[in-house]
Amino acid sequence: MIDKAPVIDQMLHQGESYFDTEVTVTAGARTERFLSTGKPIKDELGEITGGVIFLKPINRIKKLVNRFSGAHATFHFEDILGNSPHIREAVRIASRAAESDSSVLLSGESGTGKEVFAQAIHNKSPRYEGPFVAVNCGAIPRDLIASELFGYEEGAFTGAQRGGRTGKFELASGGTLFLDEIGDMPLEQQVALLRVLQNKQITRIGGSKVIVVDVRIICASNHNLQSEVARGNFRQDLYYRLNVISVKLPPLRERQEDIPLIFDHFLRETSHKLGIKVNFVDPAVITYLQQYHWPGNIRELQNVVERMINLATEGVIGLEQIPKEIFLPSASPYPEKKTAAYIRQR
């Protein structure tokens, strides 16, 4: 039995066709959601005598949407470079976390690779065939977070699109929902998120139907959430719900022995992408890179490598290609090791 839907009433009483509108079908105790398209049937006098309704299982539609919207994970643990004790310990804990369905909290500075870890966990988990949906909680306006996560029904608010919209929880059902920068989520939405995590159910904004969701949660933050709890900016009960398995990602300055390996990887990858051949890298370049404190971490290193490739002279990367913020003695905790080369450049 199709639950009451205004578009079907309009089709039968006003003769209006409708397209790709969500409807709920109830069969006994089971409820399923479909995308429905309907067209009225009229007799030779133009009178409405009935209608034809087409139903498409929404789970199939979600799979197509996820496939074409990039809602999948591409990174694996093999893609995480480095042999330093800090990074290998993070990989070990994350690999174990992938085997369970418990919530994971990834903490680390911006640019340390939190989404790479989240995708790797998903790809090693039993949910690897399901969607991987990422949401940056810090990039969504406060008044739109609820509709983004939980979706909304048609007419829920001014500007709501016709037919409503599926939220990220529904799109991620059967897979993993990655909530990046969870520490930036407003307190009022933290309450709603906690309720979903406890009940495994959502209700769209403007709707009354309860929708069951099967989602594994991975969160990430560059804030110290314990400190945010103490300041009253983050709910303690939500923190404990999310922090079942904690993985701390080290900043690049604490794993300087990994920089040559990561540099070589970005050098090969980026030179191939840009079509620029690099024949030689001055060994002093690596020394400078290892002495720099990398506030932007791996993301900053990747950008620096791309810059140096673009500025390479006849396929050679030397000291003149090093950005000033890395080359200047004041930019490093080891200025005494840089003075000679700095004078040489000057």
UniProtKB/TrEMBL annotation:
The keyword Amino-acid biosynthesis does not apply. Keywords: ATP-binding, DNA-binding, Nucleotide-binding, Transcription, Transcription regulation. It comes from the Bacteria. GO terms for molecular function: ATP binding; DNA binding. Transmembrane segments: none annotated. InterPro entries: AAA+_ATPase (IPR003593), AAA_lid_NorR (IPR058031), P-loop_NTPase (IPR027417), Sigma_54_int (IPR002078), Sigma_54_int_dom_ATP-bd_1 (IPR025662), Sigma_54_int_dom_ATP-bd_2 (IPR025943), Sigma_54_int_dom_CS (IPR025944). SUPFAM superfamilies: P-loop containing nucleoside triphosphate hydrolases. Residues 80-310 form the Sigma-54 factor interaction domain. GO terms for biological process: regulation of DNA-templated transcription. This is Signal-transduction and transcriptional-control protein. It comes from Syntrophaceticus schinkii.
